[in-house]
Write a structure and sequence with these properties.
Length: 106
């Protein structure tokens, strides 16, 4: 797949809760992560998020620490079932420290 060819950081399959806030309209939502890299997050949500929507994200990493906060922009969104969307978020900046927290629980 062409998208994979452009990725710099490896993605790791993880499943934990994600809270998000759409910066444009203050809509909040809950999702379930599918994969994480230092520069991106893939998750499943019950609502569609439009491409280029800026988001604040809180990843509930099961390491007994505060949620990992990050910001990014929706790169793509695809309906996989009614009321179920797979969403890819490109993070504003690579977060290697945050990724290290994810890897410790994988």
């Amino acid at each position: 797949e062409a998208m994979d060819d452009r990725r710099i950081f490896e993605r790791f399959a993880v499943s934990f809760p994600v809270s998000f806030l759409s910066i444009n309209n203050d809509k909040e939502g809950l999702a379930q992560s599918q994969d994480v890299s230092a520069k991106g997050v893939g998750f499943i949500a019950a609502q569609e998020l439009l491409t280029k929507t800026p988001l604040e994200l809180w990843l509930q990493i099961p390491d007994n620490a505060e949620p990992l906060y990050t910001r990014g922009e929706v790169a793509w969104s695809k309906m996989v079932e009614p009321d179920k969307y797979k969403i890819g978020v490109n993070l504003e900046k690579a977060d290697l420290m945050g990724l290290s927290r994810v890897l410790r629980v994988v």
